[in-house]
Amino acid sequence: MTTFMKYLFQTNDNFSYWIPRIILGLVILPHGAQKLLGWFGGFGFTNTMTYFTQTAGLPWIIAFLVIMGESFGALGLIFGFLTRLSAFGMICIMLGAIIMVHSPNGFFMNWFGKQAGE
């Protein structure tokens, strides 16, 4: 097995890594389920792909990877399968969301104003 594969599949028995991994997975999973399955008031795979490609202007492969990354990456974090790869996918997705969606409204959320970021 190559060094990179050993690194990807390396495990750690430290309990302190388990808690944030599970919590992050549980926080992201409903967002992925909204996009993939239409659960929790989401629009489902087809409508989300349509939104990402037509309204947001993303290439179809990026839209597909976002949906799959949020759904299966969250499951990977929860169950401890390829956690480094899953976490890297989450980081990429969240950076994309920050840059494309949230940056026009600034860093802080204005809960009481009439800005688009509310």
Automatic annotation (TrEMBL):
Bilayer-crossing regions: 21-40, 60-81, 88-112
Subcellular location: Cell membrane
Membrane topology: Multi-pass membrane protein
Pfam families according to UniProt: DoxX (PF07681)
Main localization of the protein described in the UniProt heading: membrane
GO CC annotations on file: plasma membrane
UniProt KW keywords: Cell membrane, Membrane, Transmembrane, Transmembrane helix
Protein name: DoxX family protein
